[in-house]
Design goal:
Elements (H helix, E strand, L loop, with lengths): L1 H10 L1 H29 L12 E2 L13 E6 L9 E3 L2 E8 L4 E8 L5 E8 L17 E2 L3 E6 L5 E7 L4 E8 L12 E3 L2 E6 L6 E6 L5 E6 L11 E5 L2 E8 L3 E6 L5 E5 L14 E3 L2 E7 L5 E7 L9 E6 L10 E3 L2 E5 L4 E6 L5 E6 L9 E3 L2 E5 L4 E6 L6 E6 L9 E3 L2 E5 L3 E6 L2
Parallel strand pairs: 1-27
Antiparallel strand pairs: 2-33, 3-4, 4-5, 5-6, 7-8, 8-9, 9-10, 11-12, 12-13, 13-14, 15-16, 16-17, 17-18, 19-20, 20-21, 21-22, 23-24, 24-25, 25-26, 27-28, 28-29, 29-30, 31-32, 32-33
């Protein structure tokens, strides 16, 4: 039968042309699919793919000692930013406060050796004692790595290629707030998106990722600095960006046009900030706001599926809700790991508490899930691992020897742990 088909094609050359085109189409489609799959597997922004903090690298161990590190890299300064990665390159920032130098480093994922460093000078400015001069986490795609440097004089977004060559830079204007800057950019389709919320002249902006040119810009009232890093949501065949602000509310904006799709204003007007980043699951968006010394809440919003249904709050969690750490959605559960070391497991659909227990410690880091385990690091530098189960269980505690305010990252079956002055690699099987 195979030879008969070949003979049939030989007699009808126009069919051979069509078959050739079909084969080319299939190959290209497969390549595109592989590229998209590759992109979703990269830890390319704060808290990984779409900020969800979830990976299936089951081989990463839950417990280790100092003899188990694949490598340890010294950083040229301190910072609260988290590492990101693309294939075999890890990107992380640090600030040398004494010499007033900030650095974006590229580190080899396999060896821990520095590949290149982009340094820039800065003038120290007033900030919160828990903040740093390197708090914005980079974002990376197949072409570039993008770094946001906040300053009271001129906040700058810079794009480098993967070998350290600067490709473009865009000035976003001063960052005018006493606590200093901390929000991180994200790559969304063909754009780099930034929430520049501070004291005045605030805005949301989407820039062409290849040129740095503005695609759209949305002005904000600018009454309060918020540090929530946006995420993406698919709605009616289009992509929208989800932003969170304590007073501007939770909004969905069309990625291509900047048009407002929906808005919910759930947090009131008490003195507060939105620090945790939004996470999504289907039509549900989880967002948080509050204050360390005041009320804190995580609100679940049903935004519909583009069928005209009005976005609305469906529940909120207030008791022991986190302020800085971002919620974690895993399967049909929400895990809330708060600043004071109290962890809560809730039903995703209703917010009903399954369990609430004290782990201990103080946390700025957001939890991540590796398989069915939840990892987070406290400010003293202890990585705590919990079981993602309907009963509370501590699997392991791993002291790192240095404090940390950075969220963990995962790349190439490697857990990346950023402390005050080092980057540790714990590798799986």
């Amino acid at each position: 039968m195979k030879y008969r088909n070949c003979l049939f094609v030989a007699r009808f050359p126009e069919l051979r042309i069509h078959l050739h085109r079909f084969v080319v189409f299939v190959v290209l489609a497969a390549l595109v699919a592989d590229t998209k799959a590759d992109e979703t597997e990269q830890w390319s922004r704060f808290r990984g793919p779409n900020g969800c903090g979830v990976t299936n690298d089951h081989g990463i161990p839950a417990q280790w000692s100092e003899n188990d590190y694949a490598w340890v890299a010294d950083l040229p300064g301190v910072g609260n930013s988290s590492p990101v990665a693309w294939n075999d390159r890890v990107f992380v920032t640090a600030a040398d406060e004494k010499n007033e130098t900030r650095s974006l480093l590229c580190i080899d994922l396999q060896t821990g050796k520095e590949r290149w460093r982009a340094e820039t000078g800065f003038k120290s400015y007033k900030k919160h004692k828990n903040n740093s001069f390197a708090s914005a986490t980079p974002t990376v795609d197949a072409d570039h790595v993008y770094q946001l440097w906040h300053s009271k004089k001129a906040t700058t977004l810079v794009a480098y290629d993967h070998d350290g060559g600067e490709q473009w830079r865009t000035e976003l204007g001063p960052y005018l707030h006493g606590q200093g800057g901390a929000t991180s950019p994200i790559v969304a389709g063909g754009y780099v998106v930034v929430a520049h919320d501070h004291k005045s002249d605030s805005f949301l902006i989407a820039l062409d990722r290849k040129s740095g040119k503005q695609n759209w810009k949305i002005s904000r009232e600018g009454k309060r600095a918020c540090y929530s890093t946006p995420c993406l949501r698919e709605a009616g065949g289009k992509t929208e960006v989800v932003f969170v602000h304590c007073y501007e509310g939770v909004i969905g904006v069309d990625l291509e046009t900047g048009q407002l799709n929906w808005k919910v204003d759930p947090f009131g007007r008490e003195s507060q900030r939105a620090l945790a980043s939004p996470v999504v699951s289907g039509n549900l968006v989880l967002a948080g706001s509050g204050a360390i010394a005041g009320d804190r809440q995580v609100v679940a919003i049903d935004v519909g599926n583009g069928n005209g249904k009005r976005a609305a709050e469906v529940y909120r969690v207030v008791r022991q809700a986190p302020h800085v750490p971002t919620p974690l959605i895993l399967n049909d559960r929400v895990y809330l790991w708060n600043d004071g070391g109290i962890c809560t497991c809730c039903e995703l659909s209703s917010g009903e508490v399954v369990w609430q227990k004290r782990v201990g410690g103080s946390y700025f880091s957001s939890p991540i899930a590796i398989g069915e385990r939840i990892f987070s690091i406290d400010t003293a530098g202890e990585v705590v691992v919990l079981a993602a189960e309907d009963s509370f269980r501590v699997i392991a505690r791993n002291p790192m020897g240095q404090g940390s305010r950075a969220t963990l990252a995962v790349a190439g079956k490697t857990l990346l742990i950023r402390t005050e002055g080092k980057l540790f690699a714990v590798r799986g099987e």
